[in-house]
Amino acid sequence: MAQNTGESRPDDRFDEPRSGRLVAWGNAWLGGFASPDHAGEGIRGRDDAHTVDGIEGAAGAGLTLALGRLRAQGVTGFRLALPAPGHPVGLTGPASFNERALPAGEAVLTVGELSVGLVPEVVRHGPVGDQLVRVVWHASPVDTGVPADVPQLRDAERELAQTLREATELLLRLDVAGGGPEVQQALEAYRRRRQPELLAPGYQPRAVRVLQSARQVRAVLELAATTDGAAVSAGEMAAREAAMRPLERAARRAAVAAYNAMVDEPARDPF
After folding, report:
1. Does the pLDDT at position 125 exceed 70?
2. How many other CB atoms sit within 10 Å of the CB of residue 169?
């Protein structure tokens, strides 16, 4: 089972999913928008090394070789899955793969003649702030078919905006402002932090816009989850949690739709 080993960096919760980076830059490379080296750098990000297990002819290989083997075996694109308990968004099965992807909260599924899924295992060594970070991608066969609960990009954008509007009034009343100085400092740090390049070359502007909105919503929800905010009664806390739940679901669906747009909606959209 894929899992993280060692303590997380303080800002890990705001990082782009590693599976998202692999999907975005893998699609950019396969589409001719990025060189293999550029794509490899984009996927690794701040990590020290990535290797892949389970790919025929590339067992334990580095990213560039493994991606090349996947293309040689008929892979034409990648899709993202961001599953959560009770909501396997992006997954196709089988159950054995879904059971590995769910604890990780993320996975990559190939598109084309070869149907495999990859789940990252993150291993950290050393003290926080000076860690060696290595990622092993575990590949195994997956079912073909339509990924679970992934909307079209336009629908995802509309759903996220509507869900946000519906929850705004309640969340403003029971927001992270009541969470104390630590939460406020974390929120301000997120606002100030240097934002990475969203997606990769070749993605349509709508996909970038949808992903940006989804990431902002998920960051606020991540901070909100660490506190009861201004809610003081059990009823208020329950109402706050109920308001956040559909937002989190809509944000994950929107993020998956954005990452998958390169293969699911390849036509350029100028709007």
Report:
1. yes
2. 10
3-class SS of residue 113: coil
Distance (Å, whole) CA 262 – CA 208:
11
Please state whether the predicted TM-score (pTM) of the whole model is above 0.90. no
Neighbours of 212 (CB within 10 A): 14
Q: Tokens 């894929």 identify what position?
A: 2
| Among the listed residues 118, 214, 200, 218, the one whose alpha carbon sits nearest the alpha carbon of residue 158 | 214
CA distance 177 to 217: 16
- What's the residue count for the chain? 271
Q: What is the pLDDT of residues 208-262, one digit of tens each?
A: 999 988 988 877 777 666 655 554 566 666 666 776 788 889 999 999 999 999 9
Q: For residue 79, which of 135, 143, 136, 131 has the smallest C-alpha distance? A: 143
Q: What does pLDDT average to over the chain? A: 82
- Torsion angle in degrees (nearest 10) through CA of 228, 185, 251, 109: -120
CA-nearest of 188, 170, 99 to 138 is: 99
Q: Name the residue type at position 108.
A: V
